[in-house]
TrEMBL record:
Limits of the NADAR domain: 13-162
Gene source species: Paenibacillus kyungheensis
Reactions catalysed: 5-amino-6-(5-phospho-D-ribosylamino)uracil + H2O = 5,6-diaminouracil + D-ribose 5-phosphate; 2,5-diamino-6-hydroxy-4-(5-phosphoribosylamino)-pyrimidine + H2O = 2,5,6-triamino-4-hydroxypyrimidine + D-ribose 5-phosphate
Protein name as catalogued: NADAR family protein
Tree of life domain: Bacteria
CDD domains: NADAR (cd15457)
Length: 166
């Protein structure tokens, strides 16, 4: 993780599964009566459930690694991009809420980011990340980002919601 200051905003960048903010970070939690090993597993499970693909949902639960879970998520039948774009952030929010509230050590890490906007510095992901790596000089200005930072937005909102409950 690294930090950056802009005149109006302070960013905290993260990338890779070693970061507790990564969807792939190993963190066990229970949601909807099901145990999950990461927020990515819940996201792909939620995606399959959203489109009624119970076979893929079952296979996501059985898959041992986020890479396999993500690949299964790409196989969801009856996928509708408009519906996914409407519901994806809600699914990711629910999974991360469970991840952070059921793992007290992770909750402390998230709450310690107060005052910063969380940013996924993924050079390859332009939806959940910003499409830029941490060493890219364009990372420090929102105007030069190549992605939407949905994951960073979800995590920043989650943190703010949890802080307001303290």
């Amino acid at each position: 993780m690294s930090r950056s200051e802009s005149p109006s905003e302070s960013f905290l960048f993260f990338y890779r599964d070693a970061s507790p903010f990564s969807q792939w970070y190993p963190a066990s939690f229970i949601l909807e009566g099901q145990q999950f090993t990461s927020a990515e597993q819940y996201m792909m499970y939620g995606k399959a459930q959203l489109f009624g693909d119970h076979e893929i949902a079952r296979r996501v639960i059985e898959a041992p690694h986020p890479r396999q879970q993500k690949a299964l998520g790409r196989q969801v039948q009856r996928f509708d991009n408009d519906l996914w774009n409407q519901e994806a952030k809600n699914i990711v929010y629910r999974g991360n809420h469970a991840k952070f509230t059921q793992n007290p050590e992770l909750l402390l890490v998230l709450l310690a980011t107060a005052g910063h906007t969380l940013v996924e510095a993924s050079p390859t992901d332009r939806i959940w990340g910003i499409g830029l790596a941490e060493d890219d000089p364009r990372i420090h200005q929102r105007a030069t980002w190549r992605g939407t930072n949905w994951l960073g937005e979800v995590l920043t909102q989650l943190r703010e919601d949890l802080l307001s409950q303290v």
